Amino acid sequence: PLRVAILISGGGSNMEALVRSMTGDHPARPVLVLSNRPGAGGLARAEAAGIATATVDHRGFETREAFEEALQARLEAARPDILCLAGFMRILTPGFVARWQGRMLNIHPSLLPLYPGLDTHARAIAAGDAEAGASVHEVTADLDGGPVLGQARVTLDPGETPETLAAKVLTQEHRLYPRVLREVAERLSRQSASPSARLSSL
Ligand code: GAR
């Protein structure tokens, strides 16, 4: 199966949804959950699920590049085919992104291209939007700007607050991210299967 590493900074509810989805005939399996924050709630959840965990604390490095070198080394040791950012709250440099081109996904809590960056739910409410949601996109050097692979929508209710909206959207994220990961993994595993398929028919 394809190997998936999941990067987190916090509670890891999306990580857990991804991990739970990778069973049975799923073409991928989780091999590592990595946090940039020591003690992130998601680390304990991953351990409870029997997944290897690692912490690379960004505060231990002088520069973003030095942090990313350590991140890259730890990731390479796990040989992932796909990286999933799941509530990972560090901006990655174009150099790091280039190393994982086409193999790195992120979930963002807005209907991209609306509201890249932070405070997405407060911004959607302030704008008077009728709908909000989440997007899974390919990570490119353009922050929250890579190709969108899937979206989930919710309706804003009267009296909606950033907290109530975040909770509603998060529930949808847990369905959306596993669906998109599966599509991506199926596509990648077909691609990697086809050369040997051709060889075996010679
Ligand atoms: C999720 O809502 C995710 O979309 C968001 O952080 C939350 C993480 O929750 N990500 C970003 O804001 C990325 N800039 P989780 O740790 O429970 O999955």
From TrEMBL:
| Enzyme Commission designation | 2.1.2.2
Q: Which GO terms describe its cellular component?
A: cytosol
Q: Which Gene3D superfamilies match?
A: Formyl transferase, N-terminal domain (3.40.50.170)
Catalytic activity, as annotated: N(1)-(5-phospho-beta-D-ribosyl)glycinamide + (6R)-10-formyltetrahydrofolate = N(2)-formyl-N(1)-(5-phospho-beta-D-ribosyl)glycinamide + (6S)-5,6,7,8-tetrahydrofolate + H(+)
Q: Which ranges carry the Formyl transferase N-terminal domain?
A: 3-181
Q: Which InterPro entries match?
A: Formyl_transf_N, Formyl_transf_N_sf, GART, GART_AS
Where do the annotations place N(1)-(5-phospho-beta-D-ribosyl)glycinamide binding? G12, S13, N14
Single Gene Ontology BP annotation: 'de novo' IMP biosynthetic process
Q: From the Swiss-Prot or TrEMBL record, what is one GO molecular function term?
A: phosphoribosylglycinamide formyltransferase activity
Which residues bind (6R)-10-formyltetrahydrofolate per the record? R64, M89, R90, I91, L92, N106
Record function comment: Catalyzes the transfer of a formyl group from 10-formyltetrahydrofolate to 5-phospho-ribosyl-glycinamide (GAR), producing 5-phospho-ribosyl-N-formylglycinamide (FGAR) and tetrahydrofolate.
Pathway listed: Purine metabolism; IMP biosynthesis via de novo pathway; N(2)-formyl-N(1)-(5-phospho-D-ribosyl)glycinamide from N(1)-(5-phospho-D-ribosyl)glycinamide (10-formyl THF route): step 1/1
Species of provenance: Pseudoroseicyclus aestuarii
Give the family from UniProt.
Belongs to the GART family.
Q: Which residues form the active site?
A: H108
Raises pKa of active site His (site feature) positions:
D144
Which keywords describe this protein according to UniProt? Purine biosynthesis, Transferase
Name of the protein described by the UniProt record: Phosphoribosylglycinamide formyltransferase
